[in-house]
Amino acid sequence: MGEFTTRHATQIHSVFDDSYNKYVRPFALTNISIELVLFSIDELDVKRQTMSSSGWLTVTWDDPRLTWNASAYGGIEYIYTKQDKIWCPELIIDNSVEGIKPIGDKDLYFKVKHTGEVRWDPPGRYITHCEFDVTYFPFDYQKCSIEIVSFGFSKEVVTLKNSRDTINIEDYQDHGGWVLHSTRTENHVLVENGEEFSMLEFQMIFERRPGYYITNIIYPVILVSLLTNLVFLLPADSGEKISYILTVLLAQAVLLTLIGNSMPTTSKKAPLIEVYVSFVLMLAALSIVITILNLRLHLRADQSAVPKWLKFFTLKVLLRISCRSSRVEDYVVSNEVSNEGTAEYHFLNRMSATRPQVPIRKDRVFPFHCKEVSALLDLFFFHLFNIIMFIMTMVLVIILSVSDGPPTKTTHSE
Question: What is the pLDDT of residues 184-223, one digit of tens each?
């Protein structure tokens, strides 16, 4: 390259100003090469389903009218001009959510080489629509894209081509909540009103960093869900069973609200963690019903009035689960011996001597009182709910950890 002089540069501009028509495209079919240089991902808003990114586009094309002999103009190989001086493609971001308008600014410079190659580098902050699939939250992958199309020119006169198969991430800065897993560039054809338009899609695959959500969502959800079963271990005489399970139920409802507030307001796909909390919430509500009915049985005035179906269930199921003997004679003898030296035994004897009571019938077929059946029911539901909760939690953890993966290549909808 020779020595630059303003006289030679002015002569080059003067030649173009006199003979150049900026409204005429260079060729019958003009090929536009585009490369996306990504600086950063500012935000992935799951609630609004948008992606905010920063970078610039490197757009190049050939225009044979913008050529000159470099040696005849002091060795000048390139000059700079602006958008209102030469022809340029009309490019827009098709999936923008903050107004669709042509890319670029009239104050941006174009670099024109003596071979006729034009280079345009419009920077920008792109806020685009991104449909999130939060089924496997927080171990999910998301695919977002920036779609560039030229609606001013149909495919027959202007074709957009990718300069490279991936996005340029040499200057990319890592995001605190997401890992940029991979990128790719795809060519598509967009059909509008019978006309075909060339389109480039710059795809980005993101992997969520789950550490924050494991600590603040997954761990509390599983911990609170396990507390539900402890209501069946509380003694009925403590008077705290109902207040305890109601507190656990409210805690689960708060967690479900927090998860719902951070998820997109869509009914297409629900996160598994939300389904899990909803099911645990249903179990907590069911445990309230069971606890109330069991308390009624425990506080029944006639302790020998155990329903027939409950007698059958006790003999066939509850006694076996609690490893108690089902032989009536063994129970009567062991019960009398075990209670004979207790304070409660002597207290009941004194009370029976001072005031008349309804005699407790000794049913030798079923000698268990309502309080004892109530305790056996608590033990049964404690084990049952533990099994259900363990299976649900293990299924949730396994599905979240192994099911999701990077989205596969899909065909763009036209």
Answer: 999 999 888 888 999 999 999 999 998 888 888 888 888 8
Cα–chain center distance at 402 = 15
CB atoms within 10 A of CB 318: 20
Query: HEC string of 251-285?
Result: HHHHHHHHHHHCCCCCCCCCCHHHHHHHHHHHHHH
Question: Which candidate, 244, 227, 248, 232, places its Cα nearest to that of 290?
Answer: 232
CA distances from 22 to 17, 89, 207, 212, 405 (A): 10, 11, 45, 54, 48
Give the type of residue at 284. Answer: A
Question: What angle is formed at CA 36 by the lines to CA 34 and CA 37, rounded to 5 degrees?
Answer: 135
Q: pLDDT tens digit string along 390-401?
A: 998 888 888 887
CA distance 400 to 301: 50
First to last CA, the chain: 48
H/E stretch holding 226 reads helix 219-227
